[in-house]
Amino acid sequence: MNSFSPNMLKTFKTCPKKYEFKYIQNISVPQKSSLFEKGKKVHALANYYLRGFDTTKLETNLTEQEKIVWESLKQNEYFQKTYVSSEYSLSCKIGGFWIGGRLDAVVKDENFYYILDYKTGSAPQNAEYDFQTMVYLTCAGKRFGKNIKFVYIDLKNHQNIVIDYLHGEEYEKILQDFCGKISSDKFKSQVSKHCEICEYKKLCTYKTRA
């Protein structure tokens, strides 16, 4: 059985038909690499840096804007905590379904483990109930125990969004119900504001709003 990732759950919530194109039919639509370039560079550097590698030469390949973002991350209070792991794949089973994903980093202090997620764009709205939050905290709670927090490091807006492990049972129920919905869905198009910017719109038979 495949494991449901946060992106898979978000895609289904946006549109079941898009989920079918992307994850069942495995149709890949090219997108502009420039949209993700900054995030990829920062994540790669962070992984090497936390693992103890000298990143000085790699930093010379950054643009001026990327250097500002990178320095902001290095100075972040959570990024400076004790390293546990980075680019860490984690999964767990809830009910009859597997969920999981890849964590940017796990760090700790004397009281807590912290899941770090770096955002070069904005952090999600209602972050406490974002699928990424729920999946990562559910899986990490089973791995590290309840003394764990999720930290969105919002590098665009220079803020940290810290979420405690308070709703573990609630998260698990929400995720289990949602995975069940995906497994029983007929994958019909769901017309919304996202349709016109969807990369699959040329393949889809959706009807635009009047």
Q: How would you characterize this protein structure?
A:
- The protein has seven helices and six strands, in the order βαααααβββαββα.
- With 210 residues, the protein is of the alpha/beta class.
- The chain has one domain (3-197): Lambda Exonuclease, Chain A, CATH 3.90.320.10.
- A hairpin with a 2-residue loop joins strand 2 (82-94) and strand 3.
- The termini are far apart.
Short description:
This protein is an alpha/beta fold.
Q: Distance N terminus to C terminus?
A: 41 Å
Q: Strand pairing plus helix content: what structural class?
A: alpha/beta
Q: How do the helices and strands follow one another from N- to C-terminus?
A: EHHHHHEEEHEEH
Question: Largest sheet, if any?
Answer: 6 strands, mixed
Number of domains: 1
Tally of strands: 6
What's the gyration radius in Å? Answer: 19 Å
**Roughly what percent helix?**
25-40%
Give the CA-based shape.
globular
**CATH fold node name:** Lambda Exonuclease, Chain A
What's the CATH architecture name?
Alpha-Beta Complex
- Stretches where pLDDT is under 50 for at least 5 consecutive residues are none
The CATH class is: Alpha Beta
- Overall pLDDT score: 89
Q: Determine the number of helices (DSSP H or I, runs of at least 4 residues).
A: 7
- The amount of beta strand, in percent, is 15-25%
